[in-house]
Amino acid sequence: MSLLQEFGTSCIHWSLGLTVLIGLIASEFSGAITIVALPVSLASITLSALCGTSLNTTDTTYKKRKLCDILDFFKIWVEILEFLAASATCARIASATVDYISNERLREWFLGIESHSLGEPWPDILGVSVVIVLTGLFMLGLERSPLFTALLLLAIFVSFIFFVSIGCAETIINLSKWSEDFKTCSIQSVLGAAAMCSYGFINTFPKMSKHRALKILAMITIPVFLYTVTIMVFTLMSHYKELAGTATPLLRVFELRDVDWARLVMSICIICVVCLALTEILPSLYSLFETLASKEWQIFLTSLQYRNSFTGAPLLAIFAAGSLAAILAFACPLAYLVKTLNAAALLRCIVESLLVLYFYYRPEFRNDSYLVSTTSTQYSKLKQRAKGQKTTPTNFKNRLTGIISGWKKNVSPTSVNPNRNRTPKAGTTQDDEYLLLNDYCDKSVDIVLNDDSSDDNDEKESVMSSDVEDSYSSTDVDAVVQEYKDKIQVATIDNFNENKYPTYVTATTVVIFLMIIAIATISLSQVVVWKLYNLLWPCFTVSFFSTIIILVMPKSSYQSEHGLLPKSVVPLCSIIALQCHIVLVSTLMNDVWPGIIFWFGVGCLLFWRCECCTCDGLLSNNQKNKLNITENIVQYPESYVDTILIAR
Question: pLDDT (tens digit, 9 = 90+) per residue, 71-94?
């Protein structure tokens, strides 16, 4: 993956954060509150993204859908909502910018002759047109390219440099008055501002090949620098809440300072940023539609994966994604879209934190009484012998001794040391006696007695020496190893690994205490909003002890390939991130809860229908038989014939 592709997702967040979120938050709240809220939002989002790196992409893929896969599904489902809200927000910002530059004459030319909550036209015909044009380009064969990412990154930095350079020349530097806004800071305002700028920071880190720490540091520090400088310049150019209720505050602030030529340049920069951001958002959106339509999930129609033979574009997936984005841009006001966008980003982080905890506390199918006995024997593979390696003299000697020992039919019992003779114990046979581990471990004396003779020969067979027995053992082991090609070494150790593994009981306990933490955290957020500080410590105490109980539970042997955090701290960081996201999203739910409940309800309906009914109306009879082969075996076991093919 190239450097531009790794920063493609970050550019989407930076573009909307710089052109939309920062201006709206700074005009609604004070600049001081916004600057204080930035570290809060950054810490929670980055902590969740770091915990998300402990998830292997191969583990989150679908194998056989079951109830626990609902977390994987809702991660994709909420991400679709996030991209839909982002694309609709970009379209409405472009429409509002063009409408402002045309002195609101655009509303007369199109259907939208009314203004909505932030002064943008409604219904927004131009916003729908922007989405439709880009959707048509992608259907004609336009693909995501590193060139668009480079242009978007260039447009972001050009917009930032232009706004800061021109704005610094028009600012009224009065830091004493500006610092008075810190006195108005409250917990409610800081949490509200932190929730509104959550989408401005990247909530998941992409795959990185080299210099991961340096790239992650850049993804964290660059937006903080851009947002902080922009907020300070913007608030020094305008008074407190002077531009509240406007859709493009970074553009209208030049009107307050009577810099008309800068409005045209800044509007061009904003339109370029949001339109280039759409070229990154739409491909990610319709690729998620293809994922849910694939044979792994089968949530949507499989025909969504149809690709044009000339362009190779998934026409139906692009059309479905573009249609939903256009509907949101047409009907939803910008204020509602911005809150939905941030709420979807926080909910996605919540689902990802729960998914991380699931992989660390999921029950493992282990039967210790069966797999581990009371012995201290451990099996491991031997090293393969290198080609051309000569055999050692010891092995040659043992083999030669084994061949010679076959010629020795009879040996006088008196020629053997009587102290080395062994007789089987009472009640055991000769084979049982020499299958004991202690007899094999005793390498100093190892004699085989042959008491039984054939019917023709009545004389007793003599006892072989210990060297002869060792040669027999080595030849037998070599024959078995060569036949099965699986060399096994038997070694003795003191103790096995006595680590405990999670079971259904421990997993159920973790789920119960996670529910307690969620309830306590929601109560804590409401306590902060309604200023019921008497309930603050009980909620905090319940969350603390529930977290301790979860952490002492046995963890699974799950190990990540690309994790950035140690395995021992990942559950704790996930629980902390989960609580922070619940507190932040609770400040937005008062306005966007109908849409969020509707979206989750539709997701539950789709997942339940496709799981229980296997989409009977969408599949042919042959596909149904393939999907229901397990059910047919369970219902009619006598009709199932198992066929085994053996290669000769």
Answer: 888 999 999 999 999 999 999 999
Q: How far apart are CA 334 and CA 115, in angstroms?
A: 11
User: Bridge-partner residues for 489, per DSSP?
Assistant: 380
The residues, any chain, with a CB within 8 Å of residue 307's CB and separated by 6 or more, are 313, 314, 315
The better pLDDT of the pair 441, 79 is held by: 79
Instruction: Say yes or no: domain 3-50+72-361 is CATH 3.30.750.24.
Output: no
Query: In this model, does residue 205 exceed pLDDT 60?
Result: yes
Domain ranges of the chain: 3-50+72-361, 377-492
**DSSP codes, 144-157:** --HHHHHHHHHHHH
Q: Which helix (H) or strand (E) holds 173?
A: none
The whole model's pTM is what?
0.74
Task: Work out the number of other CB atoms within 10 angstroms of the CB of residue 229.
Answer: 15
Q: Where are the beta strands (DSSP E) in 361-504?
A: 377-381, 488-492
Please name the amino acid found at residue 17: G
Residue 619 sits at φ, ψ, to 5 deg, of: -120, 150
Q: How far is CA 90 from the centre of its chain?
A: 26
For the chain, the first-to-last Cα distance in angstroms comes to 44
In the numeric block, the tokens 């044979």 are attached to 295
Q: Which residue from 174, 12, 171 is spatially nearest to 85, judged by alpha carbons?
A: 12
Phi, psi of 328 (to 5 degrees): -65, -40
The residue to which tokens 């062994």 are assigned: 422
Cα gap 264→527, rounded to integer Å? 46
SS (H, E, C) 128-142: HHHHHHHHHHHHCCC
Specify the range with the lowest mean pLDDT, choosing from 239-243, 358-362, 444-448, 554-558: 444-448
CA 573 remoteness from chain centre: 15
pLDDT bin (cut points 50, 70, 90) of residue 565 is confident
Helix (H) or strand (E) holding 489, with range, is strand 488-492
> Is residue 385 within 8 Å of 464, Cβ to Cβ?
no
Q: Which residue matches tokens 């336009």?
A: 142
Q: How far apart are CA 451 and CA 462, in angstroms?
A: 8
Question: Tell me, what's the pLDDT at 297?
Answer: 83
Asked if pLDDT for residue 315 goes beyond 80, the answer is: yes
